[in-house]
């Protein structure tokens, strides 16, 4: 479905370009353009299968390549190198293609359809959302991170775990909004400055298509494991100005990947490896916003080594504690955003606790986090210089000396909320504990039933 949607979206994009430019010439021959074969309802059954398997996909794989390797033809040919048609019924394929013909990628809302598709796949495909620790990043979280890191024209922006391209797309829109009179050369430079890596073919395809739909003709997204590719090339020329990313939670890398890291930082845990990679990839003065699970804040053994390196080489200026349920329905693991700049050691860290709306304890799939719920934190932030910050019920400052003394334990709560906790009625606290135990028991019973059913 993903590669079919790609072809449909690309054809819609070309139709828009033809309206704006009568001389537009497609890279894909007429017989293989979506509008030609997909809209021909008579092409079905074995004839459709033969066309797709023996003509369409081979044609797309063989699109002419450019010397730079960065043309739209290079991108499409690269995508289809790893594509095979897995449908065995030409009649079912015709039904699917006919349904896809009803989708039109001609509005801003439709552009995000791919991300929504991937989101639904993550829920259903255990391979994608379970073992690899991949979780779709909610748009409000992405937007907040981009705003606070504040990319400028000329900055090279990298997402080493790009997924469907959310951080790169948001960075692109952020820069376009703040540079309305951008010239054609500046626009080309901007497109070339947005870079990503994605090791799975499905999100790679979706992120590439997402970039193409945003008029980036030659997306700089690579199919591969950034932990391997970027660690193999740590020259100054390979470093970037900004990293915005939500690396996999709880994933496990092979020994071959971890061997590419210095001995004291070798581990299978992807979150730690990505944290080290980001530090090494940033230029001096480079800025980062990275989503991490709670265990990264708490871990005091091997995690302390990574955090010591982070504190000694970077200014960890802000940790934003996210409310529970932000990543529902994938996981209830508490998450955080760490913001830092490379080049000077950390002197003090500001913590900011974002609370769920009044009357709610957590977010859910049906009641997710909204963009305006970051407004108070954005106002408190103090711009790029982070000036005039003050301690509030939700914001507090801890010196690096205190954090080093605690063996880099960053799992801290607001002193005000802790004081409030000490004065809350015992019966209320016990009721919350009972509710938590009941939820745990329910999960354990569900797991037990699944095991009995052979799942």
Can you give a write-up of this model?
This protein has 455 residues and is of the alpha/beta class. The protein has 3 domains: 2-106, N6 adenine-specific DNA methyltransferase, N-terminal domain (Ferritin, Up-down Bundle), CATH 1.20.1260.30; 111-414, 3-Layer(aba) Sandwich (Rossmann fold); 424-452. Helices cover 47% and strands 13% of the residues. Strand 2, helix 12 (201-213) and strand 3 form a beta-alpha-beta unit. Mean pLDDT is 85; it is low at 125-133. Its EC number is 2.1.1.72. GO terms for molecular function: site-specific DNA-methyltransferase (adenine-specific) activity. This is site-specific DNA-methyltransferase (adenine-specific).
Q: Can you lay out the helices and strands and say which pair or pack?
A:
Layout: H1 2-20, H2 34-37, H3 45-61, H4 72-81, H5 90-100, H6 108-111, H7 113-124, H8 126-131, H9 139-149, E1 157-159, H10 166-178, H11 184-192, E2 194-198, H12 201-213, E3 220-223, H13 226-229, E4 240-245, H14 255-258, H15 270-281, E5 282-293, H16 294-298, H17 302-313, E6 314-321, E7 335-342, E8 348-353, H18 375-381, E9 395-399, H19 400-405, H20 415-422, H21 426-452
Parallel strand pairs: 1-2, 1-4, 2-3, 4-5, 6-8
Antiparallel strand pairs: 5-7, 6-7, 8-9
């Amino acid at each position: 479905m993903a590669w079919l949607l790609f072809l449909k979206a690309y054809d819609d994009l070309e139709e828009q370009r033809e309206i704006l430019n009568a001389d537009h010439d497609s890279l894909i021959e007429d017989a293989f353009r979506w509008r030609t074969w997909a809209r021909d309802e008579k092409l079905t059954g074995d004839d459709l299968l033969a066309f797709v398997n023996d003509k369409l996909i081979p044609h797309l794989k063989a699109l002419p390549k450019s010397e730079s390797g960065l043309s739209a033809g290079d991108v499409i040919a690269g995508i289809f190198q790893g594509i095979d048609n897995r449908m065995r019924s030409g009649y079912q394929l015709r039904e699917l293609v006919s349904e896809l013909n009803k989708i039109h990628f001609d509005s801003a809302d439709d552009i995000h359809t791919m991300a929504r598709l991937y989101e639904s796949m993550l829920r259903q495909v255990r391979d994608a959302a379970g073992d690899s620790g991949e979780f779709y990043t909610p748009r409000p979280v992405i937007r907040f991170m981009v705003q606070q890191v504040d990319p400028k024209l000329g900055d090279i922006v990298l997402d080493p775990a790009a997924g469907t391209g959310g951080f790169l797309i948001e960075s692109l829109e952020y820069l376009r909004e703040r540079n309305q009179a951008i010239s054609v050369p500046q626009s080309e430079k901007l497109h070339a400055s947005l870079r990503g890596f994605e090791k799975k073919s499905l999100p790679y395809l979706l992120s590439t298509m997402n970039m193409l739909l945003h008029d980036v003709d030659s997306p700089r997204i690579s199919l591969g494991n950034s932990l391997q590719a970027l660690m193999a090339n740590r020259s100054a020329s390979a470093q970037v100005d900004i990293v915005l990313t939500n690396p996999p939670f709880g994933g496990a890398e092979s020994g071959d990947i971890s061997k590419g890291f210095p001995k004291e930082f070798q581990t299978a845990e992807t979150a730690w490896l990505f944290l080290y990679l980001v530090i090494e990839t940033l230029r001096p003065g480079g800025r980062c916003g990275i989503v991490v699970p709670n265990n990264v804040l708490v871990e005091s053994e091997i995690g302390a080594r990574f955090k010591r390196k982070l504190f000694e080489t970077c200014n960890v200026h802000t940790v934003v504690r996210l409310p529970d349920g932000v990543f529902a329905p994938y996981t209830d693991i508490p998450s955080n955003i760490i913001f830092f700049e490379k080049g000077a050691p950390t002197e003090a860290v500001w913590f900011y606790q974002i609370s769920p709306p009044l009357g709610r304890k957590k977010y859910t799939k049906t009641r997710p986090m909204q963009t305006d719920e970051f407004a108070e934190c954005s106002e408190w932030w103090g711009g790029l210089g982070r000036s005039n910050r003050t301690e509030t019920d939700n914001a507090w400052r801890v010196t690096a000396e205190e954090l080093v003394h605690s063996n880099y334990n960053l799992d801290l709560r607001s002193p005000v909320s802790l004081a409030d906790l000490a004065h809350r009625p015992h019966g209320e606290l016990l009721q919350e504990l009972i509710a938590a135990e009941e939820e745990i028991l329910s999960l354990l019973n569900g797991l037990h039933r699944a095991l009995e059913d052979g799942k």
